[in-house]
């Protein structure tokens, strides 16, 4: 903890807007930007998000199956267990 005394200068802070920000100037109706919409881009983004969700769900199910195989590979030893663990990590991380 830092004590603030008259001899200690207050830390300086600096504010900057993020790389992407939006400013709506008052006086312009919202409808004036309707032409800037990109319906195709929104559909594409929704498809990508849906696909990522399906991959995550499928990956979780596959990871559970691989968990059982890893346990079975413990008995055999060797490189099979390590290979299965690597595969399970890759599936978990959506690679």
Automatic annotation (TrEMBL):
Highest taxon in the source lineage: Bacteria
Name of the protein in question: Lantibiotic dehydratase
